[in-house]
Amino acid sequence: MKRCDRQNNETREIKFTKDFTKHALGSVLVEFGGTRVITTASVEEGKPKWMDKEEKRGWVTAEYSLLPSAPNTRCQRERTKISGRTQEIQRLIGRSLRACVDLEKIPDLTITIDADVIQADGGTRTASICGGFLALKIAVEKLLAQEKLSENPIIEPIGAISAGIVDNEVRLDLDYIEDSHAQVDSNIVLTKSGKIIEFQTTAEGEPYKQEQMLQIFNTAKQGIDKIIDMYDKI
């Protein structure tokens, strides 16, 4: 199954639309090929209930959902209990965003990133992280302008992308068909300076070699560098 629309080290067409919704402090529609996710940042005063009142830091968290018509077959709404997959993804998004924020610079604030997948074609979690970072960045800029923050808490930008081995080839930014046939599946989250936040790589069949792991990482880093460069143009 050869790629006919792009090279193995190329991403799909990526697009970010700023201020996509009206009421959220920060919002972005992120598109990776056929995958489309609405990401928003909402800000509330106060810490999470589990956090000690004496803590001098705030919190960044995330929620993720897949609309019923987003995949190629309808999925059930998660009204009262979320699936293990959803929990895993929103924890990944939250961890990734907290890694780029100095929480002591957002005291007594809770920032929630919502990622709602309206169309799924592979890479929804990594698209959510990229859009979530931008929504967070927009919200922070507004808080600074409103003098609700005294200094920028964002340490450095982050980006994320999927990669994997399909038909013994390392490929970047897998769509659904490629992902469902992948021998190795990866989700990579990096900072602008190249530090690793997440490097999830799983063999779906036979084990893979160390040199293949490094090739996946280097290919993903090229894609993430491109994505982070796009942020300044939005």
Description of the molecule:
With 234 residues, the protein is of the alpha+beta class. Helices cover 27% and strands 30% of the residues. It has helices spanning 84-98, 124-145, 176-180, 210-231, and strands spanning 14-18, 26-32, 35-45, 59-66, 109-119, 158-166, 169-172, 184-191, 196-203. The strands form 2 sheets. Strands 1-2-3-5-4 form a 5-stranded mixed beta sheet. A 4-stranded antiparallel beta sheet has the order 7-6-8-9, sandwiched between helices. Strand 1 (14-18) and strand 2 (26-32) form a beta hairpin. Helix 1 (84-98) crosses helix 2 (124-145). The longest helix has 22 residues, at 124-145. It is globular. The model has no long low-confidence stretch (mean pLDDT 94).
Short description:
With 234 residues, the protein is an alpha+beta fold. Helix content is 27%, strand content 30%.
